[in-house]
What does this fold into?
Amino acid sequence: MLKWAAIFLVIAIIAGVFGFTGIAAGAASIAKILFFIFLVLFLGALLFGSALFGKK
It folds into this structure.
């Protein structure tokens, strides 16, 4: 999912350079949403993984 966020970020930067502001804004918002979803899932995996497989 982090890969898709990075791809949409690159698309937003390229579209912004060429002046496609609507496409750039849409791609940037998608990248932001995907990044935060990835961050929440990553932190959840860290917490639950350490709770299940951590030292007792």
Notes: The chain has a mean pLDDT of 86. The helical segments are 2-17, 21-53. The two ends are 32 Å apart (CA to CA). Residues 2-50 form one domain.
